[in-house]
Amino acid sequence: MTHLHWPNRWGDALAFVALGFGALCMIGPFVWMIATSLKPVAEQFDMALIPATPTLENYPRLFDILPMHLLLWNSFKIALISTFGQLLTCSMAGFIFAVVRFPFRNAIFVILLLTLMVPGQITAIPQFIIFRFLGLYGTQAPLYAPAFLGGAFGTFLMRQYFLTIPIELAEAARIDGASLARIFFTIYLPLAKPALAAFAIFAFMFSWNELFTALIYLPSDLEKTTLTVGLALFQQQYSGQWPLMMAASLFSVAPIIIVFFLAQRHFIAGISMSGLK
Amino acid sequence: MGNLRPMGPERWWVLVFLAPTLLGLLLGTFGSIFATLGISFTDWDLLTPATLAGISNYVDLPGDRLFRNALWNTLAFSALYVPATVIISLFVAIGLNRRIPGISFFRVAFFLPTVSSPTAVGLLWTWIYAENNGLMNRIVTALGGDPVSWLSRDVALYSVVIVNVWGAIGGGMIIFLAGLQSIPKDHCEVAALDGATPWQRLRFITLPALAPAMFFQIVLTTINAFQAFDYIYILTRTGNGNSTMPTLVFSIYRTGFRFFRMGDAAAQAVVLTGMIFVLTLVYFRLQKRWGAQA
Amino acid sequence: MKHLTSTALALILAAGAARAETTIDFALWGSPEEGEVWKTIAAEFEAAHPDIKVNIEVADWDGYWEKLRVQVAGGEPPDVFAMDAPLYPDWQSRGVLLNLQPYLDANPSALDGVYPITLEAYRTPDGLFGLPRDFQTIVLYYNKDMFDAAGQSYPDDSWSYDDFRAAAARLTLDANGDGVKEQWGFWAEVYDMEPFWGPVVWAWGGSPVDPAAGTTLVNTPEAQAAFQFIHDMWKVDGSMPSEQELAQYGYDGFLAGVAAMGFSGHWSVPEYAAAGLNFDVAPLPIGPAGRATGVNSAGFVISADTDAPDAAWQFVQFAISEAGQAKLANIGLAVPILESVAKGEAYLGQPVQINQALFVDALDYAHMKPVFRGYEEWSSAVGDALNLAWSGEEALADALAIAAEDGDAALAKNQ
User: Is A234 in contact with C66 (Cβ distance < 8 A)?
Assistant: First the structure.
């Protein structure tokens, strides 16, 4: 066993107990959600962890009420395209901000961060007018086109990670005649796998959970819209039936958990970078 | 920060790499920063053309009781939420940065609250906080205390901070886990052989290496705190669509969309953005000082 | 020969022109099922009007209003959209709705058989800019199982508010004596005036608001007495769950099966039936000033910017016709505005077998839910102030004074 930050087995054991307790607190409500999704409506408020008469009926009912396969597919398609666009354009910009000196670098970066701080409630209408002006209203472009135009969150995240990579690597490669593009794709991007994995989780999650844009720009038609919009519609009628709501909500988070599970394997303690120096 | 000066054809690469961001920024600044600023100097009811209002929307803000209340709630919430989220997620990430069997399970466990739908989990938290037979009060009474009204006005602030921190640890953990991968393994081993204590290694190796990730996480957590809405609303909402603990974004939404006063709402948004911006500048300063010291 | 060919060509062209469709978008809030019913109504309409295609767009309540505001403000409004009567003046007064009066003048029989009170909300000095689609009256819901278990006779039209209060107290139970109630006699939504406090204030002879004068009337002697009744039943008798007690049961105590009675509109029927409750409805009790309830309606409006006003009007006309109304009655969420449908099999023969006629009969003693510009802001200000009393932060008298003051301020802002 490789231990990194604690000197002995006692430390490991202590960490294990603390994390075990933490994990229990984290996972508890989720287990309760699963339990509630297995209850008939009559038992929904009994606050019991184990259903008295467990049932699977809530899951097929979900598919009766909503065209789940279409909603899942629409959400998945948009999330996948958005994640790709974000990973590409944000890591490119993050690299330039972290490595290259150019005029107005700090000013541009600060304005970029500002866009993240302005609350979205006011900007919804101006953005609608811009999309309409560009002739994109009535298309699906407003859902994934912005993902290909960078973004403050991803650029900031990638910039911060690129800052931890010793600049000497880039300088040495440059003396060997490598172009900036080559330095980015062959040195920085491979080294940034953990950050890319982290960002992929966020980018996928943001797109998957996006409600407002899908609501505004997709037709309010269950065959054309995303899972979040479909579930909002569904809650209108079934908000009093919590087992059904829990089943729906478990269903909607499963894809993000899968993405997380796949991505977190890149958080492997002890990648040795010193060999590269 | 890297200071590579681009030469000759490299300038083109800089432009190509930045082009999507600059285009997005052009649209984004007009669509968000300038739009919000512009609207804040008008009276605009969404449905008829806006008229210029000068600074009257800002002048009216201090007299708006809902806004004052929302501002106070947001500041108090952020003051508790930001440090708690950053510190706890940092320690969780350090704890989960190891190669042991089953580590994936732990990581998924800490990530679950981040993805759980606030609407669904909100009910579970009302159970946990229920005055009678709720989990929290069972623990309190078992320890010999008196039952607490967790969602009453005096206590609700702390209760919603707990739920929000619970929901945010996973996100912070991801950032710090990624950041921890940039620490060369050899550094730790060398330090361990040199007999450094865990605290010394945290202080002199881990934290300095994590500084960029830490800066990112503090800025983002601050933005999230000032824009916090969903769990707070779900736990404190009233039957008329209001909240006993309104936050700033709730006030902005309500003033602009429901009361048709976009100008007032935009002025509130400018104040909100200004506060986050000033805090971010302070963090920048502190980071520089800290960086120089380390 | 040549002549014949050109005639044929002209015919083909004419047919082609006839098939050149006008498409209208109809946006509404609702559930997936409501969307399906509207699609069948649209299909029937399209069969009768082959040149018009109707696009149905359903969103949840919050999403609907968000999307509508962005679309209208951004210059892409749907042609026809649903409207909640109290919010209608906010939209009408800002000039975004089409005046339907010319169409109504051209079709004098268009509104025959529509309950007149449901039209009131949409009248303006310039005519009607909207038409009702269905209406809601508030009635007393009661859980038969809980009444049977307590040996209590069901509520009937002889009940006064005193009888109601006494029954509510008897139906409030702490069976195991642990100091924690498992059942309450009554639950109602207390923030918006529609389901509970509005009808009680009317039954005491008061009124919530006088929008024309810009005065909130919650602090008049009649209203004070009405609120005192609510306060005593809730805070003295403990016959209603506090917000804290209710939280763990979702938002609707009657739906959760922990309240024996409730005040609500027809919108609750499908939900209560789906939860398996054994319930029926009774008229609201008689107050010091007689029996009173509230009526509210949802309706249709047409965008002033629509490219196809005639097609939009034809669709609205179809939706309030007997054919359209009968289909809507099937959803079971509201009462049809056409007397012939509300008294016919389509409404009375709904799958949920309760006293459906009562919702219609309630029109006889119903007051219209106030409809004025700034309703939402007023309602929000008054609701928040009243909550000070319900949460115990202020004495009732003080909370009512604050409610009147804040309500008036909200009215003034929206003049």
Answer: no
Phi then psi for residue A17, to 5 deg, are -65, -45
Q: Give the residue from B10, B26, B27, B32 with the most A CB atoms within 10 Å of its CB, the best one to mutate.
A: B32
Alpha-carbon distance of C60 to C39, in angstroms, equals: 16
Question: Does the pLDDT value for residue B125 go beyond 90?
Answer: no
The CA-atom distances, in angstroms, between C342 and each of A221, C88, C106, C354 are 30, 24, 26, 14
Query: Which chain B residue's Cα is nearest to C410?
Result: B259
Domain count across chain B: 1
Interface test with A, best of B4, B135, B220 (most A CBs within 10 A): B4
Nearest to A45 among C59, C71, C249 (CB): C249
Domain extent, residue A31, equals 9-55
B238–C180 C-beta distance less than 8 A: no
What does DSSP say about strands C80-84 and C22-29: parallel, antiparallel, or unpaired?
Answer: parallel
Residues from chain C that touch A132, judged by Cβ atoms under 8 A, are 74-76
Tally the domains of chain A: 2
The answer to the question of residue B189 being in a domain is: yes
ipTM of the assembly?
0.90
Residue from the list A219, A233, A239 with its beta carbon closest to the beta carbon of C32? A233
Long-range contacts of B48-56, Cβ-Cβ distance < 8 Å, separation of 24 or more: B48/C94, B48/C95, B50/B262, B50/B263, B53/B263
Subunits with 3+ Cβ pairs within 8 Å of A are: B, C
**Helix locations, C238-368, DSSP H:** 243-247, 269-274, 309-319, 322-331, 339-342, 345-348, 357-361
Task: Identify the CA nearest to A114 among candidates B59, B31, B76, B265.
Answer: B31
Q: In chain A, whose CA is at the least distance from the CA of C246?
A: A45
H or E stretch including B264?
helix B262-293
pLDDT single digits (tens) B45-70: 999 999 999 999 999 999 888 899 99
C283: phi then psi, degrees, rounded to nearest 5: -65, 155
Query: Which of B123, B134, B149 lies closest to C250 in CB terms?
Result: B123
Residue C85's H or E segment, with its range, is: none
Q: Distance between CA atoms of C143 and C195, rounded to whole angstroms?
A: 17
Q: Which residues does chain B have within 8 Å of residue A135's beta carbon, measured at their own beta carbons? A: none
Q: Which of C73, C94, C248 sits opposite B127 (nearest CB)?
A: C248
User: Do C77 and C96 touch, CB atoms closer than 8 A?
Assistant: yes
For residues A38 and B121, the answer to whether their CB atoms sit within 8 Å is no
**CATH number of the domain enclosing B163:** 1.10.3720.10
Point out which residues pair with B151 in neighbouring strands.
none
Q: Give the burial class of C285: count Cβ atoms within 10 A of its Cβ; 0-12 exposed, 13-18 middle, 19 or more buried.
A: buried
State how far the Cα of A263 lies from the Cα of C186, in Å rounded to an integer: 52
Q: Which residue has the higher pLDDT, C216 or A243?
A: C216
| Residues of chain A contacting residue B223, judged by C-beta atoms under 8 Å apart | 116-117
Identify the CA nearest to C361 among candidates C283, C302, C304.
C283
Q: Residue C127 — left, alpha, or beta (φ > 0 → left; ψ -120 to 50 → alpha)? A: left
Q: B49 in contact with C at a CB cutoff of 8 Å?
A: no
Give per-residue pLDDT as tens, A118-173: 998 888 899 999 999 999 988 889 998 999 999 999 999 999 999 999 999 999 99
The range of the structural domain enclosing residue B214 comes to: 52-293
Letter string b/e over residues A226-258, b meaning 16 or more CB atoms within 10 A of that residue's CB: bbbbbbbbbbbbbbbbbbbbbbbbbbbbebbbe
Does residue A148 sit in the same domain as residue A201?
yes
Contacts with C275 from chain A: Cβ below 8 Å: 41, 240-241
**Residue B1 belongs to a domain:** no
Which DSSP letter does residue C267 get? G
Domains with residue ranges and CATH for chain C: 21-137+296-368 (3.40.190.10), 139-295+371-413 (3.40.190.10)
Measuring CA to CA, how many Å separate A225 from each of A66, A73, A213, A216, A219? Answer: 11, 10, 11, 10, 7
Regarding whether A87 and A15 lie in a shared domain, the answer is no
